[in-house]
Specification:
Blueprint (H helix, E strand, L loop, with lengths): L21 E9 L8 H14 L4 E9 L2 H12 L7 E5 L12 E8 L1 H11 L3 H16 L9
């Protein structure tokens, strides 16, 4: 099973000075009975990454919460890997346009809570912590960042 924690690390965003103009629209579709973090907490995770990477403007991100079978199907369809994973990211741009007067959809994040919970248990962290890590990790992918060794 792949763990995003082993593939990509992030910066600590807690000491970041807030001077960026970001208007984030977050569209959430939950196809499971998993209770996510609050919409505000999820938005805060995305905004932390956008600030860290200097992205400003009106941004839209889609978040879809799916069952294990659906994420396995998507992983096979788009990555030719026939197994479930915790998260997939589908960026729209190679480089996100800046200072948009209208919201620009930068992509979709798809999370499977079943795999996420397995990884949280394995890492000894709370489900909220692991969920927030996946949001941040995926946002980096939506901004065009890749794992080492990936093109």
């Amino acid at each position: 099973m792949i763990s995003t924690r082993d593939l990509l690390t992030f910066t600590d965003f807690t000491d970041y000075v807030d001077f960026f103009m970001i208007d984030l629209t977050l569209v959430i579709e939950n196809k499971t009975d998993f209770k996510t973090s609050t919409k505000k907490a999820i938005k805060d995770c995305v905004i932390d990454v956008l600030k860290e990477k200097g992205i400003e403007g009106e941004i839209e991100v889609g978040l879809i919460i799916v069952e294990k079978s659906e994420i396995q199907y998507l992983n096979k369809q788009y990555r030719q890997k026939d197994y479930p994973t915790d998260v997939l990211s589908f960026p729209i741009f190679d480089k996100v346009p800046q200072n948009n007067p209208v919201p620009i959809l930068i992509g979709d994040i798809i999370i499977c809570p079943t795999i996420m919970k397995e990884n949280a248990d394995r890492f000894g962290v709370s489900y909220d912590t692991e969920f927030n890590n996946l949001i941040k990790h995926s946002t980096l992918h939506l901004l065009g960042y890749h794992h080492k060794g990936d093109e």
